[in-house]
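Worked example 4.2. Below are the chains of a multi-component assembly; read each line carefully before continuing.
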Amino acid sequence: MSDSFSLPLRPRLDRPDPPDPLPLEIAQINAQWGSFRHVSEDFLRHRIADQSDDASEDHDESPTEVDTTERLDQLYRKRAEITQFAHQAHMEALFALDFVSLLISHHAPRQAETSMSAYLKQVAPMGSLTPEVVDPPPKPDAVRRDTAAVARGWRLQNFHSAANKLLTAATRLESEVAAETRYWNEVLSIQHQGWKVCRLPRDRQALGVQYGFLEATPIFRDRGLASLRRADDGSLLLDQGLVPQKARRVRVRVKTAGRWTGASRTPPPSTSDPDAIEARIRQARDTVYEEELFHEMMREARILAPHGVTTRQNLVRVPVSDEQEIWLDLVDTDGEAPPPPADDGPPAPADDDRLADALAHALRILLTHAHRQNRHRREQPPPPLTPRRRHTPEYHLLRPLLAGLQHRAHVRALEAVLRDLHRVRRAAGLAGDGTVTPFASVRPPAPHPGLPTVESLVRSLLRPLESTLGGPLAAPQASVHVTVRTAITGPPGGTVFDLAVHLPAFPDVQPPARIALRSEVEAVLSHVLLLDVVAAVAAAPATAPGRRWEPAAPHHGELVTAGGSSAAQNRKLTIHLSRDGLRVEAVAVGGLDPFGRPMPDPTATPSSRTWTAESTGPGLLEFVGEVSRE
Amino acid sequence: MHELLLFASVPAHQHHELLQQLAGLTAMQPRHRLERRLIFKAYRKPGLINTRVGASQDLQGNEMQRLNKMLNGGMFYTQVVGPLDESDFGLNRSSAGDPDAAMSGTEELPTNGPTYSYENQPWKLEFRDIPEAGTRSAVTARLMASSSLPKGDISTPMTAWGYSFVSEYVVEGDIFVLDDIVIFLHRVLNYPTEPQSHEPRRELPPLSDMVLLERSGSYVLQASITVQDGGNQEMMKTASQHLFGLREQLKSAVRLEQADRLSLDTRAK
Amino acid sequence: MSTPTKDQIKALEQSRQRLVQLTHSLASLIASLNQSDPLPSWPSLQSQATILSNNLLSISEHLSENQPLLSSLVAYPGPDFPGRTQAPTLEQLLRTKLDPRVEDWVARGRRRAVPDTNSNNNNNGGDGVTADNDNNLSEHDLAELWHWAPVEANREARQRDWGGDYTLEERQGGVANVVTGLRRVLDDGEDDLESSGSSEGEGNEGQGEDEEMEVVGVRMRPGAGAVAGGGGLEFDIATGGAHGASAVGGEDGGVGVQKVVAPVVPLEGILRFMTTGAQPGQR
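Applying the procedure described above to all three chains together yields the following structure tokens:
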């Protein structure tokens, strides 16, 4: 540095003009550097780049790399030197004092006595050395000149070293100014980007940047502060203390039937330069957020253990259905391997990638929501102090997800059942339709005064989930509707199904009010649809011979023709409805069983027909018409 | 319950700055608060009251018991506090061309007279004992209790309990919460006119007509913590320490101190 | 040969006093060196060095002032000096030969002063060209330079405000135009220059800041009450009149400049009113 910038403090003696006055020097500095304030970061970086070669050389030869013991050694040597000089000087001064004291002891014994050494007092009586004034011969010129030369020599020497010290100080000051300028510019740029720059609570001389989340659990909240230290060259150092520097994030993976079928993606870094201080702050913020997210998930997962959620050191496993599981773990952002290993089978369907991404986003939104709720709570007047410590309730992170997934699974399963049944029925020419309104409860929230939109939005997601499915049936005015409700905040598994059945032919048929098991709902659904088939057959207009079908044992899908003169003339129809097909069996009635029910005639050959979803051709009613004509 | 408090006087010119400091310290926005405060004074010797108050149907049985206990304890001044909204106050006559009104494009003519409904005014009874004497810790500590009261006309039930109405005022200020501490930066507003009758007002004047009790406009900073069990020395100590922590944090801005005990003397003589 | 006069003895006595001071200072330096490990604190070491340097300066001044007298004084042992037994002591007292180290020091000065022999001097790595130039100056030139330099340096030093917040250039361009990025108003140290107490004032302010910085963000400035026009706040807070009751009573209606008014009613009066309804001052 000194070769590129020097103040001519040493006298320019070939020209006995005065050295440049300081204002000129300031002008010189300004000309070379611009105003101190305008020395920009880029400019400094540039300079540093230019000088990097020199700098690295400097480093190699740097004598500052003496280790501490050596330095200590040096220190003690110097100390001994100082002490020795001091002793010597003291001794010489004492001799001089003794001499002068003894010299005046004749004329001023009282004063002299106070300053004579004990030894001298012992050996030399007072007044035993006397001064006399003489007329001395003039000193030789040579001696005088020599004395003057020595004095001049030392003066020169001292000016020289003073000049050197000033120059060193100026150089140091100059590099300090450059370093400080750079440091403050970087601090300012951080603040301009919206980060909160503040004084550190513990080290009040230092600046820090707050990137963490005020409403996080204290251990994570307190980690959200890093000091902004200054490197020797003025560049900013983000000192996060003990926090690992690695970027980490929560990864969501979906495992279906023992295979990885999806994983959340790592968002691309938002800035191009990962070493930029802003990028590092952002990374620190993201990591502390992700770690908190994982911590809170673990906490919640533990209370969910009764519901099959398992935790390991660094993993949360959430079962969604019999064959699907969600795995949540905290991974390093960079060292992340693609999740599906090759031997696990064919590549996963992209669908589950989306699911995993959605879950990952949802988790983060929910943690932010929990933060907001913490803030609301914090701003409320606190309850009175009691010795009991307030337990922080687990956040709702996994539970809403679990509820959503379960709800989705239930609705999808029911939808499939309904769809299959209707398909079979449609193939058999029966009207009726099943439509699904999934997540009917999730609506854009109405604006709520005093509540930010984002909060009411998340709140609406945390309300009980509700989906409906169902529709009109074949029989006139018949319909069936299922409402699926899942509570988000309660314990998982809290899905209830409400069925609304409207079968004018069987007004007494009403399912139980609330069904908790999906399998039961499925059974009820297919039963209701069977009843509807029976009702539809019964309601069909009478065919030519005038025989009508009447439900005999509708719950077993049985109808008989009525109006025959004897039981034997009647026909019996048995309908089986399942997701796979609709099967009808018609047989002549042989007589009545002991309960008065028509029995098939064992001698008659039954005629039957089966429709599957793919069937074409005549429908059920045509078949029934044929049978009834026989 | 016990209440521990520290107070400071805040000159008007410092108010805005202190609000910002407190907002920074507590990391929350100030919550503005307007309160009606009615002062009642016991006129009967305790122990004589065994009242069923007609208008108390909205009070729970145990709440009632607590009220009776509180009010029968001794001869005390006690406060009845009701939250207000700015819209409860009468319209400012001078603000006919109020910018707010002009801005709301709908030509909504201001309804004549205030929207305040005395009948629906909720109330709370705030009982405070005289601060404990001779406590060595440098905080004000006193027994406190509060309880909900019937809405609307409170004079009648209070009279039935043996309390007569003394006077009333309005408190306006801002509340902050710092962990267990509630910080209330407030000042007292007096009504511009003497009441017609000696009972709580049924109408409120415009807010701008209210008169400052402290004419320079200074505020009172009150920091308080409530402790469930005042007999628990450990808790009381913790609470004082929290207050001292706040005092330390604010010491460059205000000097929080124990209040003069007699100025908070609630005993009715 | 004559006996010294009273004044001459007085001069000697003054030498003695200065030497006493020097020996004391040295003794105390040695003591403090011995008492601390590894070294006394830097400020204490520095102040001791300053004291010593002042002692030496005063001795040196005294010696040159009294040079004519001292060079014409001779000391000789009187008849009662036990010359036979204490010859070494006498020799020590009357020694004029310099200590070898001092001799060396003198020689170095001599070498430095003589141009021919400076090739092997040790001037702390300064570039040789300048050093040569130094010594090429004639004695006369040097004397002239040395005569001129202190005056000129002093003049230069006076031209700048060593403790100020602004550079000379900035001040010439108008302090108001400087973008400091600070919201508080810097004290333009102009007045301090004349009052010469600027460094002291700075020190006080610095201390004050350390003590006052308790609340994050905003702080009071020491002695704010004395500053007129409400400028006592370190930060120029935006005065939004929107705040709820700032219009109440009209007392602080015109917010812009708030007057510093001490409360009229003491806190006790307010609390008493709030508790019992007793009007302040009516008790």
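Take a moment to check your reading of the output against the notes. Residues 137-212 of chain C form one domain. Chain C touches chain A through 82 residues (CB under 8 Å).
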